[in-house]
Amino acid sequence: MFTELFWAYLVAITLLTITPGVDTLLVMRNTGRGGLRDGCVTSVGICSGLFIHATLSALGISILLVETAWAFSALKWAGACYLVWLGIASLRQAWAREGRRPVEQPEVIRRRVATAVSFREGLLSNVLNPKTALFYMALLPQFVDPAGNAFQQSLVLASVHFLLAMLWQCGLAFVVVRFRGLGASARVKRALNAATGGFFVAMGAKLASS
């Protein structure tokens, strides 16, 4: 029975992982900002948040959060404000004027970003996402064998999600780096920042108004 549950979970979590969303755009944006390391560290932060959601789900706190209107509203507004903040940061990067670069070095200059900053951005993006909390509350218990230890099973399932998401997001980061290596211009970088910034702001506004 556990094997059947596991394979069903694997299919569901794979579809969830490859569906584009806020986490995907954040990894792409940060990779464009600071290179492969920045994107992969951001992915580690995002995927680490999965264990927090799995723990809350196993302890039943997620259900309490959803049943308590003010608590869920607080999470929703925190996530919305964070998305808007990320969007404004991306738009500021898009509008910022870059200095003149030497002709012999046409590649895009990367910003050095502290590892803690990239990790924190990814972690908060995931933890403050009420959709992820709802997903883990509604879906994860469906794949837990009630005859076993719910907490241990939840962490195992979250570990599988962690590995799949890391592979997918780091692969996207590698693609972004290769694209830049083929001669992506500063204009393309600004367009990407503008697009992701507008998306983050729009998602934050939609989340706040929903």
Describe the structure concisely for a colleague:
This protein is an all-alpha fold and 210 residues long.
Describe the SSE topology:
Elements: H1 2-18, H2 22-34, H3 36-59, H4 61-67, H5 69-95, H6 115-127, H7 130-138, H8 150-181, H9 186-209
SS class:
mainly alpha
Task: State the order of secondary-structure elements, H for helix, E for strand.
Answer: HHHHHHHHH
Taking the sheet with the most strands, its summary is:
none
Low-pLDDT sequence parts: 99-109
DSSP strand content: under 5%
The level of helicity is: over 70%
Q: How many strands appear in the DSSP assignment?
A: 0
Question: Quick one: overall form?
Answer: globular
The total of helices stands at 9
Mean of residue pLDDT? 79
What Rg is obtained from the alpha carbons, in whole angstroms? 19 Å
First-to-last CA distance: 38 Å
Describe this structure in words.
With about 210 residues, the protein is mostly helical. The chain is built from nine helices and no strands. α2 packs antiparallel against α3, α2 packs antiparallel against α6 and α3 runs parallel beside α6. The longest helix is centred in the C-terminal third of the chain and has 32 residues. About 5% of the residues have low confidence.
